[in-house]
Amino acid sequence: MSRPTIARVARAAGVSVASVSRVLNGLPATEEMAERVRRAVEELGYVPDARARSLKVGRTFQLTLAVADVGNPVYVTMMRAVEEVVSAAGYRLVVTTTGPDVVDEVALVRGMARGYADGLVISPLRVDDDLIKSIRECDVPVVVAGNVPARAGVDTVRANSPKGMLLAVEHLLAKGRRRIAFVNGPVDTVPGSARAKGFREAMKANELQAVGEVEAADFTFAAGRAAGKELLGESAYEAGSRGDGPAATARLDAVICANDLLAVGIMHELGARGLAVPAEVAVIGMDDSELAEQSFPPLTSVNLGSAERGRRAAELLLARIEDDSRPPRRIVVQPTLSVRSST
Amino acid sequence: MSRPTIARVARAAGVSVASVSRVLNGLPATEEMAERVRRAVEELGYVPDARARSLKVGRTFQLTLAVADVGNPVYVTMMRAVEEVVSAAGYRLVVTTTGPDVVDEVALVRGMARGYADGLVISPLRVDDDLIKSIRECDVPVVVAGNVPARAGVDTVRANSPKGMLLAVEHLLAKGRRRIAFVNGPVDTVPGSARAKGFREAMKANELQAVGEVEAADFTFAAGRAAGKELLGESAYEAGSRGDGPAATARLDAVICANDLLAVGIMHELGARGLAVPAEVAVIGMDDSELAEQSFPPLTSVNLGSAERGRRAAELLLARIEDDSRPPRRIVVQPTLSVRSST
DNA sequence: GTCTGACTTGTAAACGATTACAAGAACGAT
DNA sequence: ATCGTTCTTGTAATCGTTTACAAGTCAGAC
User: Fold this and answer.
1) pLDDT, tens digit, for every residue of A88-134?
2) Are residues B80 and B187 part of one domain?
3) I need a surface site. Which of A253, B45, B47, B99 has the fewest CB within 10 A?
4) Are residues A315 and A249 in the same domain?
């Protein structure tokens, strides 16, 4: 026998479907009637169909979180925070992954119109007009965890990358480092461009010149290693000149990385060349993800407030679901520095 | 104006709703009619409602992957593999997280009856009769990535932990290590108990006795560190006796860990005590997750085939959706060893 | 010109829930 | 006894699709 429907329950209990629905939704009913319904429900193992319910009531009680790369530990921090807020509000959280291309993100946002969920938190890697348009026109509330132009007219909660960069640079200065290199992710991404700008400003404010700057292919560990090779030179530090010549250390004494995965990749390349962290080269990551704490040496990292951003994003989403007419809010979360052993 | 429905499109195109539906689903229609429909769809920005559609056709074209802890990198490996297979088959993958308690898992499986998705891949941490019952009775196909008894009558794909443990022990032996300790996760979990058993067998087969065995509170990095403290002694290696006395190294020369997070935690504790990896103590992890490659030193890890398990699980799920009457299959994926610098 | 068959399109009944509305029951006040 | 309230329960419409079935159109064969 296939899944029982509310009609079968009603028949079994000898009442109407309306009564079953009422009992199940806690509307007033006599105790005797409620008891009969409950017994029938129990007996048949009835579970209401969410599709039918949401078709009727127009809500799914599900929210979606879309991230670009599940392998990036910054998203687990964010995910945990979002999960906590939305589940406390009685929603299920489902996570989907978009991939790095903006067309996938657009497709996802457009797809929300199909009614999969009551709202979306999206953390887009790349933003273009299409994406902004799709977000504006989306039938369900969307909040962006990241930076999109104000004209998008959408709730956002973003990090303060320039401020974060400043924290990083000043921390290195305080540690006596002045020959600072920068490893960024792709500059055609939202975080990539923000961090490039932030780095330039922070260096300028401190009258420093970067001793190296490379752009990794993406925000992954592998790209970090490749960037490290580029930054440190493929062959300059090979066996026989294992970092003990002046050329090895004179060039740079600190590296700031656009995220923790890149930083860990860089540390591996430094290690491969016999350069000690932090003795010879200090390394700073960004995101302060779980990886920062797990890496060795533990990574000093700019905490861009992923957890708080996740929390605030979830709260904005819930508030907008509550009241769609409220003016869009743009929240900026301030960074802090988590100092560990890599500097 | 609220979301357009198929009826509005039909009116705009001057045709019936049935025709709109047919055109949208690629059923035969005259070119003229198709063109009018497409134009109306375009103009109104119509997107079919997935809830209504799936209510009617009884399928959602969504599949769910449920994992216990998004912070565990083994799941990202698995997630990627599952995603690839199901999206190639035209399904959306949504990921939910259950938490460590079996009651949450049971609730999730029961909840599938609400029709959120057409199938479920679940990787349960803890299994009890309730969970097995809920899986057996689940209205949508379920495949378990992990070990459940055959009587559950469900498709499973699991790792071969004992074989993996054997690989680990024999590798250490080949490296001349004989004083092996074991850091497990909770033994009331599926992987915990499998690995405990595997470790015992592997040690016995090689006529070795464990020099230490501790059970971490869970499979996380923090628990790994705590376990390291317990294993190595809170105070025995403090400053002043930094691993240079015989007591420090004589006790153990290798640690096998039940997963990579625990292994990295252990390496941190070893580092804190000045014990060099691998020179003084070799460390082996399990899962061969991205973290193994990222850790420093890179972690030798038993590859329990997470990617392949994910792939096979997804394939089993698709096959069962295709044909629910096929006999349950129980696939075992064989482990390999990824040797890196920690041993 | 009629009939057959193939093909196109429309009408209306599902899918499984919620809920507006109506009807009936119970009860106290007059 | 009658009336009006209030409370409980049932009937049926509805959400937005898909699809079985019916009806209509058209071409070709006789």
Assistant:
1) 999 999 999 998 899 999 999 999 999 999 999 999 999 999 999 99
2) no
3) B45
4) no
Write out the residue range of the structural domain in which residue B41 sits: 6-48
Provide the CB-side half-sphere exposure for B182 (13 A, CA).
Answer: 25
* B272 located within any domain: yes
CB-nearest to A70 from B76, B137, B265 is B76
Instruction: Tell me what pLDDT residue B2 has.
Output: 80
For A1-18, what is each residue's pLDDT tens digit?
A: 688 999 999 999 999 999
Max CA pair span of chain A: 90
B216 and B153 housed in the same domain: no
- Does residue A341 lie within any of the structural domains? no
What's the CATH code of the domain at A123?
A: 3.40.50.2300
Average pLDDT over residues A325-341: 97
Q: Chains A and B: how many Cβ contacts under 8 Å?
A: 120
Question: What is the nearest nucleotide to B16, using C1' and CA?
Answer: C10
Specify the amino acid at residue B275: L
> Same structural domain for residues A298 and A167?
yes
The answer on A74 and A25 residing in a single domain is no
B54 in a structural domain: no
Instruction: Let me know if A234 is exposed, middle or buried by CB neighbors in 10 A (0-12, 13-18, 19+).
Output: exposed
CA dihedral A11→A16→A18→A23, nearest 10 degrees, is -70
- B88 pLDDT higher than 70: yes
Structure token digits, residue A137: 């026109």
Least Cα distance to B226 among B215, B237, B241 occurs for B215
Q: What is the mean pLDDT of chain A?
A: 93
Question: Could you say which of A113, A293, A296 has the minimum Cβ distance to residue B296?
Answer: A296
Q: What percent of chain B has pLDDT over 70?
A: 95
- Within-domain flag for A55: no
For position B243, what pLDDT does the model report?
42
Question: How many residues make up chain A in this entry?
Answer: 343
Cβ contact A277:A342 at 8 Å: yes
What pLDDT, on a 0 to 100 scale, did the predictor assign at position B250? 56
Give me the pLDDT at residue A244, please. Answer: 43
Same domain as A144, residue A262: no
Say if residues A118 and A62 touch (Cβ distance below 8 Å).
Answer: yes
Per-residue burial over B293-317, b = 16 or more CB atoms within 10 Å of its CB, e = otherwise:
bbbbbbbbbbbbbbbbbbbbbbbbb
Question: Using CA atoms, how far apart are residues B76 and A201, in angstroms rounded to an integer?
Answer: 36
CA distance A201 to chain B (A): 31
B45 closest CA partner among B91, B12, B18 = B12
Average pLDDT along chain B: 93
- Tell whether A285 and A315 lie within a shared domain: no
Contact A70 B80 (CB under 8 A): yes
The answer to whether strand C lies under 7 Å from the CB of residue B331 is no
Judge if A33 and A121 occupy the same domain: no
Number of independent structural domains in chain B:
3
Which residues are bridge partners to A256 per DSSP?
Answer: A182, A284
